[in-house]
Amino acid sequence: MLHAFPHPNHSAQTLFNASSPLELRPSSLCPPCKASERIFLWQGVNTPPAATIPNPVICHIASLANRASLRDTGSYGAGLRKFHLFCDIFSIPELDRLPASFELLHSFALWAVADPSPVDVARKYLSAVRAWHIAQGWQPPLSDSHHSRINWSLRGLENLQSGRRKPLRPPITLPMLSALKATLTLSDPFDACIWAMASCSFFGMMRFGEVSVTSQCSILSIKTPFPSGCLLQ
User: Fold this and answer.
1) How many other CB atoms are found less than 10 A from the CB of residue 3?
2) Which one of 12, 40, 90, 163 has the minimum C-beta count within 10 Å?
3) Dihedral of CA 211/213/219/223: which sign?
4) What is the DSSP letter of 205?
5) Confidence band, pLDDT 50/70/90 cuts, at residue 9
6) 3-state SS assignment for residue 113
7) pTM of the predicted protein model
8) Contact between 106 and 140 (Cβ < 8 Å)
9) Taking the CB of residue 179, how many other CB atoms lie within 10 A of it?
10) Contact yes or no for 177/198 (Cβ under 8 A)
């Protein structure tokens, strides 16, 4: 099915003007760096509580220990990027990203599986966000009860996916639709037909097979709409 995930309150014009959801929106809080450095260099607007006494030597030792605590920070960087991608798509303000609420992380886990990603990958994403919180001086964002609730949802999605013969397909997004339009010449009848089919199936939440036919022989005058059968008033 052709569908998109942006926030339902967004206007169509706002969505068409948005940057590609495959790229993070530029932010001074997330400077360009290696994936292994993201949990240390990417920050939030909130100030974490003090974890040590205000002594330069103690603070320096704490910083060294913080960076040496994890061996493979590259994988955490990938999960953290996924989290910020989710926040950009759903217009989550920087103020709410660090520290993140249970509601936000639960939604992120559900979206990550529907993106689609395997359930175990979604759990790794949550681990990355947890590591980011700790590295930035915050408490772990999820309690045991929160993990139980999220695991309940992920287990249900895993059960749904296990019954599928084919893996979930990624959604069609507005930037993809814009990229398609840029390759078409709408003055050409065939290209105009392709664009009409794509836009109708996208905004009508239809499968592409519902707006197309397998061959000319399969066209039925009773079921297939024609321009001659349309009346515009």
Assistant:
1) 13
2) 163
3) negative
4) T
5) very low
6) helix
7) 0.62
8) no
9) 11
10) yes
Residue corresponding to tokens 């709410």: 96
The residues, any chain, with a CB within 8 Å of residue 171's CB and separated by 6 or more, are: 2, 3, 4, 5, 115
Decide: 202 and 172 in contact? Cβ < 8 Å.
Answer: yes
Judge whether 130 and 76 are in contact, CB under 8 Å.
Answer: no
Which pLDDT band holds residue 83 (cuts at 50, 70, 90)?
very high
Q: Which helix (H) or strand (E) holds 86?
A: helix 73-89
Amino acid at 85: L
Angle at 69 between CA 64 and CA 73, to 5 degrees: 105
Within 8 A by CB and 6+ apart from 19, the residues are 25, 175
Question: What is the arithmetic mean of pLDDT over 21-28?
Answer: 80
Q: Which residues contact 204 (CB under 8 A, 6 or more apart)?
A: 211
Cα 47 to Cα 50, 133, 141, 174, 197: the distances in Å are: 9, 12, 15, 36, 50
Which residues lie closer than 8 Å to 27 by C-beta, 6 or more apart? 94
Secondary structure class of 126 (helix, strand, coil) = helix
Cα 218 from Cα 204, distance rounded (Å)? 23
Q: Which two tokens stand for residue 71?
A: 């061996």
